[in-house]
Amino acid sequence: MPAGERSERRVAGLTVTANGGKDTRDVADVVVVGAGTIGGWASWFARRNGAKRVVVIERDLAGQGASSRAAGIVRAQGGTREAVALGRWSIDFYNRQHDLLGTDSGFRELGYLLLAVTSRDEREGRERVAMQRADGLDARWLGVDEAVELNPTLAPNGFRGASYVATDGHIDPPRNVRAYSLAMQRSKVDLRERTAFTGLRCSGPRVVGVETSAGPIATERVILTGGPALRAVGRIAGATIPAGGARHQVAVSEPHDAFGVDRLPMVFDVGAGLYWRLEEGGLLWGMSNPDERPGRARTIDWTYLRRMQRRLRRFVPVTGDLGIRKVWAATIDYTPDHLPIIGPLITSDGEGVDGTVVASAAGHGMMWGPAVAKVAADLAVKGRTSVVDVSGFGLDRFDEQGRSPSYDPIALPFPIDLSDDPEE
Ligand SMILES: Cc1cc2nc3c(=O)[nH]c(=O)nc-3n(C[C@H](O)[C@H](O)[C@H](O)COP(=O)(O)OP(=O)(O)OC[C@H]3O[C@@H](n4cnc5c(N)ncnc54)[C@H](O)[C@@H]3O)c2cc1C
To answer: Cα dist. 389→83, 85, 92, 147, 279 in Å?
Structure first.
């Protein structure tokens, strides 16, 4: 081909260039797609890893996806060893943030009780505690009396015991958006809001740039996030990413003296997908409906919300007389095995794209987000990470139907099928 001549072909959003995309004047060491908690923190970690010019492209405004709408629950009590490691790393990061950044995500250690309602819950809960303890997490199995002693608002009937970790807690999701936005700004990450990712440029097996609604950027490293929109981001990049979105609802009760305290353990009724914690003198409770089809959250499902409010009243009788002060529904991200995705993009023809890292916390962006972001930045910039064993987190674990050999049983939301794409 004569010098300067450019050959390019597009495959389902993927642009393949023969000149390495070198005609693009806008250049970055790393481009991150999406400015939610994963993309935001990943861009900051990429800068700390030595990447000089980091550009984040966000189709909307930073944090306006799932990240500002979360309930903020953070736990190291995962259902797999890797989930435990991601949670522990993230809690440690939240605790160190103020020293590192001069700002923080508002982490508040409250402790977390994961209730066993059935005998099977109890058997699985005890096994989980043994696995977590073997990995060094200070998890304990508590009888009903011990659980009620720690959280006196719990009724002593209706559950058989609980696993407990004192160092679990919650962050304040809008404050987390503020924290990563400040961190990005201070480390001179170039955040481009209202700029959509529209395609990937490749030369052979390597990424050489991205296309955006504001023009192309030449780069050899791309981190692809998207939260509930990750499947659509994958489609734009010419890949099938088995990830989805589902409605998740959160309500906050009016204040009550029982909740006007400094510390009261959070509680998870795992089988029902109902959890609660202190919030502004009242109780925040969140829920996923296991029987609901996945898809975008458009409205509040008051029937289900009231059903879960009645269930909450059984566990925490004092909530019976409390009104609801606010409630919201938003789309939560998930993967079919409820484990994160962190690894190279694999295009629809089965080829891995060198230089890319797809990153999803699979609906656990508050509890695993910092660790997932750090791993993504490590893989993008250094090609390796010491945070966690990532060998089981790649897209190559999924078959064509999105099935995978592993599964995290302590996870919300419930969907495992990919029938509806929230972006369609
Ligand atoms: C109601 C609710 C409660 C939750 N509670 C908890 C909780 O208690 N604990 C917990 O750990 N997790 C919780 N989650 C999950 C958590 O919020 C998510 O896992 C996390 O926010 C995902 O972060 P993200 O950065 O991957 O996605 P997002 O925050 O959604 O960010 C992705 C970004 O990508 C952008 N984007 C998409 N497509 C494009 C494109 N083509 N070009 C450019 N940008 C694009 C989007 O605009 C968005 O800003 C909750 C979620 C919801 C909805």
So the answer is: 10, 9, 18, 33, 35
Give the other-Cβ count within 10 Å of 124's Cβ.
Answer: 17
pTM of the model: 0.95
Six token digits for residue 290: 């296991």
pLDDT for residue 94? 98
Please identify which residue in the block is written with the tokens 């609802």: 249
66 lines ligand 1 (CB under 6 A): yes
Q: Check residue 14 and give its pLDDT.
A: 54
CATH superfamily to which 109-167+245-334 belongs? D-Amino Acid Oxidase, subunit A, domain 2 (3.30.9.10)
The string of pLDDT tens digits covering residues 227-269 is: 999 999 999 999 999 999 999 999 999 999 999 999 999 999 9
Ligand 1 pocket test: which of 31, 32, 38 has the largest number of ligand atoms within 8 Å of its C-beta? 38
Angle at 139 between CA 41 and CA 270, to 5 degrees: 75
| Cis, bond preceding 336 (omega within 30 deg of 0) | no
Q: What end-to-end distance do the CA atoms of the chain give, in Å?
A: 41
Phi, psi of 281 (to 5 degrees): 80, -5
- Is the predicted pLDDT of residue 21 greater than 50, yes or no? no
Q: Using 50, 70 and 90 to split pLDDT, how confident is the model at 12? A: very low
The pLDDT score that the predictor gives to residue 23 is 53
Q: Is the shortest distance between the CB of 342 and ligand 1 below 6 Å?
A: no
Cα 370 to ligand 1 centre (Å) = 13
- Residue in the structure block whose two tokens are 């260039």: 17
Tokens 């694999």 sit at which residue? 346
Which superfamily, per CATH, for 8-67+175-242+337-397?
FAD/NAD(P)-binding domain (3.50.50.60)
Q: Which atom of ligand 1 is nearest to the CA of 236?
A: 41
In 3D space, the residue among 19, 83, 69 whose CA is nearest the CA of residue 297 turns out to be 69
